[in-house]
Amino acid sequence: MEIELSNLLENSVVLDGLKYATSHEWVKHEGPVATIGITDHAQDHLGEVVFVDLPETGVSVSGGSSFGAVESVKASSDINSPISGEIVEVNSSLKGKPGLINTSPYEEGWMIKVKPSNPSELESLLGPKEYTKLCDEENAAH
């Protein structure tokens, strides 16, 4: 089995087909809905997630603004929405199993689904290669 080295950052995974914010959230845009979560790189730096604070459905979020928080054994961190829109679904599984963010950040650990109000915001987000470069630079600085 071959793994592309460009998609590995010290064991953190960056997936093709997603867009990434410099604040370490990912967006998967499918049809009228965009799914948002935190990246593998972010969860790795947070450590074991023990609590997730998420908003209700129907709430509007603004690109670059906080919509919730993640508490880990190391720290509490705000989670920002990379795009603006209305929250149409919240991952209720995270209330009882916040560790899904650690074990499956891109699948079972997603946080919210948003109906984008300004789809052009997606164009300003990073692709997988740019995000990998950002993470490599951050790792080198630490």
UniProtKB/TrEMBL annotation:
UniProtKB keywords: Lipoyl, Mitochondrion, Transit peptide
GO BP term, pick one: protein lipoylation
Modified residues (N6-lipoyllysine): 74
InterPro entries: 2-oxoA_DH_lipoyl-BS, Biotin_lipoyl, GCV_H, GCV_H/Fam206, GCV_H_sub, Single_hybrid_motif
Domain named Lipoyl-binding: residues: 33-115
Annotated NCBIfam families: gcvH, PRK01202.1
Name listed for the protein in its UniProt record: Glycine cleavage system H protein
Organism whose genome encodes this protein: Cannabis sativa (Hemp)
Gene designation: LOC115717243
